[in-house]
Each structure stands twice: as structure tokens, then as C-alpha cells.
Specification:
By secondary structure, the chain is an alpha/beta fold. It has 6 helices and 6 strands. The protein is globular and about 50 Å long.
Length: 179
């Protein structure tokens, strides 16, 4: 969430979207989780920090919203939901929005449906001009950061540091472990 290449790729995606709507409010989105989970994990705080880092060189207003809520209706989840945030934005006079899925690495079905279908339909209904920023996906800055991270990460096990028993009760170094 705070790797330089990830943040730089997010900034680049935001600038691409801002080229279409330079004065738009930015809505960063991430997958919602139950509030109880967010009380024991730094998920929401890390996302908020990432948003601040990405938006550090823009003058537009921004906020974090969530999408893809699931689970029992009575269980509280992180919010606001992106659709709720867009309705509130419109009610306050907002007319131009960039939606950037900061919590998603690729443009998969949740991003495509939640943002390109549902959020787009709501924006069209409310008269909000909307641009959806691409995810970092295959952005070269992000890919380079993944490669750098992989190079920094030591192997899980070194030279027979542990052994795994297979079904025949023989052991071998875990580097040789087979499913």
C-alpha cells in the first residue's frame, strides 16, 4: 500500500483521469470489509494513508469510499459505499467525479460492475460527469515495484532449513515439496 512504485503508478492513473476532468473531486475506492475486521487490522488506516500519498500533489478534493459490500445486512461494514458517497456529493452540488479504485490492482469484475456499470448509471442519472481511473494493473511503475519487491524478499527456506513429511513418511527440504 505504501511502496513507491505503487503510489507513483496510482498518481499516474489519477493524472490520466484528471486530463479528462481536471477539476473533479476524486473518490478513491476499496473493497469494504466488516467493521469488526477493521478494528483489528490496519486496512482502513493504510488505505487512507495511501490516498493521502497519491493525492499529495493534486489540488482537487478527495475522499475514500468503499464498494463490493457483502454479508449479512445487519453486520456493519466500512463506508460510505461509493453510491452513497456519490449521492451525497450530488446533493452538496458536486458535478464532476473521478473514481479511482485504489484498493484493487486490476480491472476485474468487481471494479467493472461496481464502478463502470452501477456508479456510471448513478452518475448519469444524477447528471454527474464521471471518469473512472484505471487500476495500476500493468502500469510499468507498478510492475517494476513488484519486481523490486520480489528481489528484496528472501526465499522462504534456505538450504534444508526445514523439512516436510510427505504421505510416505519421508522427508525432503521444503524447496522440493510437491503438492
Amino acid at each position: 500500500w505504501n511502496r513507491p512504485g505503487f503510489i507513483a503508478a496510482q498518481r499516474a492513473r489519477l493524472r490520466e483521469a484528471q486530463a479528462q476532468l481536471p477539476n473533479a473531486t476524486v473518490f478513491f475506492t476499496a473493497h469494504s470489509i466488516p467493521q469488526i475486521m477493521s478494528e483489528v487490522a490496519p486496512y482502513a488506516a493504510d488505505l487512507a494513508s495511501a490516498c493521502v500519498m497519491v493525492a499529495s500533489d493534486i489540488t482537487a478534493k478527495f475522499q475514500l469510499a468503499y464498494q463490493s459490500r457483502s454479508g449479512p445486512p445487519l453486520q456493519p461494514w466500512l463506508g460510505p459505499d461509493i453510491l452513497e458517497a456519490l449521492r451525497k456529493f450530488h446533493a452538496a452540488g458536486g458535478r464532476e467525479a473521478i473514481i479511482q479504485p485504489i484498493g484493487f490492482l486490476s480491472d476485474h469484475m468487481e471494479v467493472l460492475f461496481d464502478l463502470d456499470v452501477e456508479a456510471r448509471a448513478l452518475c448519469d442519472q444524477l447528471g454527474i460527469k464521471m471518469v473512472r481511473a484505471w487500476t495500476v494493473g500493468t502500469h510499468l511503475l507498478f510492475v517494476a515495484e513488484i519486481l523490486k519487491l520480489a528481489e528484496e524478499t528472501p526465499p522462504r527456506c534456505a538450504d534444508s532449513c526445514c523439512v516436510i513429511a510427505d504421505s510416505a513418511r519421508t522427508t525432503r527440504p521444503c524447496g522440493d515439496a510437491r503438492p
